[in-house]
Amino acid sequence: MKDFIFDSKGMDELFKEVYCSPDFFCFPCFSENNTEEIKKTYLLGINEFHKANFEDAIRFFSQLVTPNGGLEIAGYWLGQCYYHQSRYEEMINVYTDLLSKFPQWCLVEYHLGLAFYLTAQDQNAIKCFEHLLQKKNSNVFTYIYLAEIYFRHGKLLEAINTVKEGLTLNQKAKNLKKALDFYTDVSKP
After folding, report:
1. Is residue 130 domain-shared with residue 161, that is, in the same domain?
2. Which pairs count as long-range contacts for 32-41, CB under 8 Å and 24+ apart, including other chains?
3. Does 147 share its domain with 69?
4. I need a surface site. Which of 16, 68, 102, 138 has the fewest CB within 10 A?
5. What is the pLDDT of residue 36?
6. Contact 57/74 with Cβ under 8 angstroms?
7. Which string of DSSP letters, residue by residue, matches 11-80?
8. 36-50 vs 72-84: helix axis angle to the nearest 10?
9. 186 and 153 fall within a common domain
10. Residues whose CB is less than 8 angstroms from the CB of residue 154 and which lie 6 or more positions away in sequence, other chains included
11. Which residues make Cβ contacts (< 8 Å) with residue 160, sequence separation at least 6?
């Protein structure tokens, strides 16, 4: 059985074809209680992340994430560092914790679903992706990953319907069109 795999070229490319509400990207950020040292550490982590020095970025972000809270946006970036190192279980732990504190943080829920998808924890991935679709806070890749999971489990009709639903929201999404063509071709005898 063939698998549908789309091109992924990093975060910049990933979100060029996004359908999402403004709430998708909402996240807790700096408050008046954050010291200059916290802000400096955060910016050093961001700088290292953008230079792809993920271990250094992890060191900075880890200083800002604590069991009792901390700078939650640093937790998001900590998870992204783990993603770029294929350390998905650690990403799952960070994002599960963040989502328990901020259940409306859709970007974290999307990346948690992605980590579950990448570790073949399909039922958990489905739960995340379907929850985003119910909240109307998703992007085109939410539909693609969900369809791929259905396809992996032999549910071709569900895969096709999921992609069609995504296309009703964003008819210009090239990756959704590519997925629909793939699943339609596979369904032909």
Report:
1. no
2. 34/71, 38/64, 38/71
3. no
4. 68
5. 78
6. no
7. HHHHTTT----GGGG------TT--HHHHHHHHHHHHHHHTT-HHHHHHHHHHHEETTEE-HHHHHHHHH
8. 20
9. yes
10. none
11. 147, 180, 183, 184, 187
The pLDDT score that the predictor gives to residue 73 is 84
Give the relative orientation of helices 106-118 and 140-152 as an angle to the nearest 10 degrees. 30
Q: Within this chain, do residues 144 and 83 fall inside the same structural domain, yes or no? A: no
Domain count of the fold of the chain: 2
Range with the largest mean pLDDT of 68-72, 93-97, 162-166: 93-97
Q: Which of 121-125, 141-145, 155-159 has the weakest average pLDDT?
A: 141-145
Quote the domain boundaries for residue 60. Answer: 33-136
Nearest to 71 by CA among 106, 30, 111: 30
